[in-house]
Design goal:
By secondary structure, the chain is of the alpha/beta class. It contains nine helices and eight strands. The protein has a single domain (about 1-220), classed as 3-Layer(aba) Sandwich (Rossmann fold). It has a five-stranded parallel beta sheet with strand order 2-6-1-7-8, with helices on both faces. It starts with a strand and ends in a 7-residue tail after the last helix. The structure holds 2'-deoxycytidine-5'-monophosphate.
Length: about 220
């Protein structure tokens, strides 16, 4: 079974994706983490983020691995654990820039498809283009969304817990910049698949969203988990 979860940043995709994967015994793939790892690799190389050819070469040469259970997923870049490093808003912006390079997308989409297909019971993938491009035949497609203020509030609370010095206003501005870039890029922009189930999480708590999603999954024929 393949479950696609798409949506803008801060809508709750990764938390809910992990919860569903754990409950259903599926592989969890955080595709944003892969774009973040490429962003970090470009940053560390000191090269220009807007030099598409160089960025694509770095993506091709980087070994990106997602290892472990949903709760303790480790992201490795060329064998080095970068799980924490990639979580900053700065790396989020870098990921958003490199993700607009078509060749980077080809490389990572192929990687995501092969990981998803090779997983025995299936996978939950979260990202921006899972239901539209990576797995257009996914068994279930969710599109999680929330208004920018609600998403910024959540991100701000997460950042505070991680010890990042920031303000709500800064977080909201960053979310708006990233959203704009992600919906307006030419290649695979953030879009709602025709057959996606859209859930607006602005006014819902985590448990409410989780239970709604799980109930939908359990209605899929053949799903016994
Ligand atoms: O989900 P995230 O915030 O970790 O994603 C980081 C960036 O990567 C996001 O701004 C857009 C990009 N991305 C993408 O283009 N396609 C995906 N499937 C996942 C993420």
């Amino acid at each position: 079974m393949i479950i696609a979860i798409d949506g803008p940043s801060g809508a709750g995709k990764s938390t809910l994706g992990k919860m569903l994967a754990k409950e259903l015994g599926l592989l969890y793939l955080d595709t944003g983490a892969m774009y973040r790892a490429v962003g970090l690799a470009v940053f560390e190389s000191g090269k220009d983020f807007y030099d598409a050819e160089t960025v694509a070469r770095i993506a091709r040469q980087s070994k990106i691995e997602l290892i472990g259970e949903p709760d303790s997923l480790q992201v490795k870049l060329d064998g080095r654990d970068v799980s924490n490093e990639i979580r900053t808003n700065e790396v989020g912006q870098m990921a958003s820039i490199v993700s607009a390079v078509p060749e980077v997308r080809v490389i990572l989409v192929e990687h995501q498809r092969s990981l998803g297909r090779n997983s025995e019971l299936g996978a939950v993938l979260d990202g921006r283009d899972i239901g539209t491009i990576v797995f257009p035949n996914a068994d279930i497609k969710f599109f999680l969304t929330a208004n920018p203020e609600a998403r910024a509030r959540r991100r701000y609370e997460e950042d505070k817990l991680r010890g990042r010095v920031t303000t709500y206003e800064e977080t909201l501005a960053e979310i708006n910049v990233r959203d704009e870039r992600d919906v307006s890029r030419a290649d695979s922009p953030l879009a709602i698949a025709e057959d996606a189930i859209v859930i607006d999480t602005s006014e819902l708590n985590l448990t409410e969203v989780y239970e709604t999603m799980l109930a939908i999954v359990r209605e899929v024929p053949g799903e016994t988990a």
